């Protein structure tokens, strides 16, 4: 089955930041986690995909179509939630939903009502009276109510309590069971991605670090702990980054098997989380 989303050599330059040749693809039936530190270019990439910004170079294909020429057709099949909301604050949730419903050809009123009940959102409440977390839940309800084939989420869980976050994870897992749908999920809460993501795309400082299967990443990467004397000039090339004190070091290796072959039993190997991978990649070498 063709990919739902294809991004190839995507670039965009601003006065103080440059997104450089980002490439990844997402097939139907999968969830991709999109990670990176603040300022890495995640939101810029998502806005380029949604054609809210104009790219300098590269290609974007959604459902095999170019967003520059088929923007309306594409957005009719996408559900999206941004980290900032731009609703008419004087309107009620119900009134705002009527406006949004007119934008889509497959709006499902019963589905929307069901999500309002699930998220404990009062349909007659004015948007301006909602907390930020409740506005995010409202955005999710809108995004999930028109049979979207691609769901794009930009930090949707950062303002939600653990119960609602868990419900969202369950909703996304259910969407994955529909082999015609896919999710691109940008978040700082990497523990959520470790639960549900099939692939992880990691960018840093506007550049692609990797875009690979999550299980492969977590299998290959590892934390290594040992005596600082073992961190020789020859061994340093094994590490993406490390933290060293006079008592010992902890470092991240991108190839557990190679590191074990060269370091053997002189060090301790531990499983690396996505947080660990992001931290040591971004920080690099640190001495305390």
Largest sheet: 6 strands, mixed
CATH architecture of the largest domain: 3-Layer(aba) Sandwich
**Rg over CA atoms:** 21 Å
Judged by helices, strands and strand pairing, the structural class is alpha/beta
Shape, per Cα inertia axes: elongated
- The arrangement of helices and strands along the chain is EEEHEHEHHHEHEHEEHEEEHEHE
How many structural domains does the protein architecture include? 2
Report strand order across the widest sheet: 5-6-7-3-8-9
Q: Beta-strand level of the residues, as a percent range?
A: 25-35%
**CATH class bucket of the largest domain:** Alpha Beta
Separate helix tally: 10
Tell me the name of the CATH homologous superfamily of the largest domain: P-loop containing nucleotide triphosphate hydrolases
Count all strands and give the number: 14
Helix content: 25-40%
């Amino acid at each position: 089955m063709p990919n739902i989303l294809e991004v190839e050599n995507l670039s965009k330059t601003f006065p103080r930041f440059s997104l450089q040749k980002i490439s990844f693809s997402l097939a139907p039936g999968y969830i991709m986690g999109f990670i990176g530190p603040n300022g890495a270019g995640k939101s810029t990439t998502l806005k380029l995909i949604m054609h809210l910004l104009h790219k300098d170079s590269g290609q974007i294909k959604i459902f095999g179509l170019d967003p520059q020429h088929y923007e309306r057709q594409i957005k009719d099949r996408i559900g999206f939630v941004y980290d900032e909301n731009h609703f008419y604050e004087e309107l009620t949730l119900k009134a705002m939903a009527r406006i949004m419903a007119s934008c889509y050809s497959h709006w499902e009123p019963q589905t929307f009502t069901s999500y309002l009940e699930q998220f404990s959102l009062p349909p007659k409440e004015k948007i301006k009276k909602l907390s930020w977390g409740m506005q995010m839940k409202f955005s999710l309800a809108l995004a999930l109510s028109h049979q979207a084939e691609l769901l794009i989420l930009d930090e949707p869980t950062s303002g939600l309590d653990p119960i609602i976050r868990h419900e969202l994870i369950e909703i996304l897992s259910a969407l994955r069971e529909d082999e015609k749908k896919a999710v691109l999920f940008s978040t700082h809460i990497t523990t959520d991605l470790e639960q549900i993501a099939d692939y992880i795309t990691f960018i840093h400082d506007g550049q692609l670090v990797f875009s690979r299967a999550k299980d492969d990443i977590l299998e290959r990467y590892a934390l290594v702990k040992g005596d600082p004397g073992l961190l020789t000039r020859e061994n340093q090339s094994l590490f993406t980054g490390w933290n060293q004190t006079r008592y010992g070091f902890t470092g991240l290796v991108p190839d557990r098997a190679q590191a074990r072959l060269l370091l053997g039993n002189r060090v301790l190997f531990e499983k690396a989380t996505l947080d660990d991978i992001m931290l040591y990649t971004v920080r690099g070498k640190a001495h305390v």
